[in-house]
Design brief:
Layout: H1 14-31, E1 33-37, H2 38-57, H3 60-70, H4 73-83, E2 95-102, E3 109-115
Antiparallel strand pairs: 1-3, 2-3
Helix pairs in contact: 1-2, 2-3, 2-4, 3-4
Length: about 120
């Protein structure tokens, strides 16, 4: 039984899932909008919002935590210098998920996840 277990398995093992979510979060923060499946978008939303919250704190510890998650110094700099200051007045809810409909090949529910303005 999965009582009180959080997160979706997404059909992968733990290491693949962790790498995939980090990659999706990095793509979302770099491009500010990505197209993916609905379950992946709902999982990556939490990671991306946590990284932006670290960016809002702006201290060295937060920068190191963000760097440990996305492992790209330029992208961490962008988050801390460009993205996080946009959300100083907002307490969470930095992303939006828009449903696009089913994918042609396998009818997977596709969504567009983007940073709100």
């Amino acid at each position: 039984m999965r009582h009180a277990k959080q997160g979706r398995k997404l059909g992968t093992d733990a290491s693949h899932r962790k790498a995939m979510l980090r990659s999706l979060a990095a793509a979302l923060l770099a491009n500010e909008r990505i197209k993916t499946t609905e379950p992946k978008a709902k999982e990556v939303r939490a990671l991306a919002e946590q990284i932006i919250t670290w960016g809002k704190r702006g201290d060295v510890h937060s920068r190191r935590l963000a760097l440990a998650e996305i492992n790209d110094k330029a992208l961490v700099k962008k988050v801390f210098d460009d993205i996080a200051p946009r959300y100083e007045e907002r307490n969470g809810g930095y992303t939006r998920i828009l449903k696009l409909g089913p994918r042609k090949g396998d009818a997977a529910p596709m969504v567009l996840i983007e940073l709100v303005d």
